[in-house]
Amino acid sequence: MATRVSILGATGSVGRSTADILSANRDRFSVEAVVGGRDAAALAEMAIRLGARFAAIADERSLPALRASLSGSGIGSAGGEGAVMEAALRPADIVVAAIVGAAGVRPTHAAVQAGRTVALANKECLVCAGAPFMRDARAAGATLLPMDSEHNAIFQALGRHRPDEIEQMIVTASGGPFRTWPAERIAGATREQALAHPNWSMGAKITIDSASMMNKGLELIEAHHLFGVPPEALGVVVHPQSIVHGLVSFSDGAVVAGLAVPDMRVPIAHCLGFPERLGTSARRLDLASIARLDFEEPDMDRFPALQFAIDALAVGAGAPTVLNAANEVAVAAFLEGRIRFGDMAALCATMLDRFGAATEAGVLESVEAALALDAEVRAATLSVVGTA
Ligand code: NAD
Ligand code: MG
Q: Residue limits of the 1-deoxy-D-xylulose 5-phosphate reductoisomerase N-terminal domain (predicted)?
């Protein structure tokens, strides 16, 4: 029987790469539901191309356009937050969680609570609500498959092991477009400069996070929750070629690394086929033509966002929630031209200070409590940067 897949965030960068893999393996998969934010035409096109049964659009105002584009297709549709939740809960063997930001928490959490296998691209879920999210996943017997490339590489490198045999887990960072820039130039970088990632083609939010290296900080927090390793066993190394994605070192000194060309179709195919391998048309890795792989320490002075994330992870409790919410508002404000590049990390630091009470143990008793804190921090950050 075909594996039934639902895609939350189907019209985005990860969603479209997922659709490519599904289309190339039609005999193995059927598509249950697709979810998009507000681009009705793109969602309808995706639903029809994949033969989905149901399409949900988060922005209710886009529902008439979605219905018009789907008319005659026999594909069901609905709009608003309830529709997104319905899509997340429809029966599926794999739910791909690829909505961007904390907007993905509720639907992804719903799928997890229903005990589904969730292929997790949306790292903000675990940064916003890590501990209760993982606790609920375990309680429901849900399986989380890491789709983020670094975590997928680590997942593949782990093999058979006991937890006490792991010494360190390392995620690599490309260093982004500003890897060699001096601090003052980074602080004043334009939107276009920040959106020009050297190795990966991704959505706007994660591309900005990669330029500030906040993305790597979010990934450390993600790794902590996904793999249950303590913060001190996690590391980052800058690797400009983005060929080695993640490494695990074991108690005997052996290190196992995951390599591939920087193409999200590789980790996406791994999750969709797991535990089997699917074919992909990703370019094959040719080490001799790449010739060299470079590695360097991250520079926390020029990329303070990474240090703030490491600090938030060490503090624990609601600190990562605060960081994530402030960062999402800051990135949106930067993309809208309301603040400078260098203001983003500063805003996160201000909010971490202001919401010091969120660092108290017990503050994240549930995913709903995390979302309540998220909403509070968003409002406070918006009151600093103003709305568009
Ligand atoms: P994107 O901006 O390209 O796509 C986001 C998707 O979410 C779109 O389909 C959009 O319509 C949908 N969406 C936005 N707001 C929504 C809402 N309120 N309700 C429902 N849907 C909504 O983003 P992306 O680059 O595909 O990234 C998606 C997630 O995957 C992010 O969490 C990102 O960190 C993670 N990720 C992305 C990549 C990558 O290569 N793009 C790699 C690793 C991890
Ligand atoms: Mg990544």
A: 5-130
Q: What is the pLDDT of residues 52-61, one digit of tens each?
A: 999 999 999 9
Domain boundaries, position 69: 3-147
Which of 228-232, 240-244, 302-306, 360-364 comes out lowest in average pLDDT?
A: 360-364
Residues 29, 108 within the same domain: yes
Domain stops at, among 92, 125, 147: 147
Residue of 20, 61, 96, 99 to test ligand 1 pocket, by largest number of atoms within 8 Å of CB: 99
Cα atoms in the Cβ-side hemisphere of radius 13 Å centred on 207: 20
Same domain for 182 and 321? no
Residue pair 177/185 in contact by the 8 Å Cβ criterion: no
Whether this prediction's pTM lies above 0.95 is answered by yes
Domain boundary among 114, 147, 180: 147
Q: What's the confidence (pLDDT) of residue 275?
A: 96
Testing ligand 1's pocket by substitution, the residue of 11, 13, 147, 216 carrying the most ligand atoms inside 8 A of its CB is 13
Q: Does one domain contain both 163 and 304?
A: yes
- Tell me if ipTM is over 0.95: yes
Contact 147, 268 (CB under 8 A): yes
Backbone angles phi, psi at 205, to 5 degrees: -65, -50
Question: Within this chain, do residues 64 and 134 fall inside the same structural domain, yes or no?
Answer: yes
- For the stretch 161-180, pLDDT in tens is 898 999 999 999 999 999 99
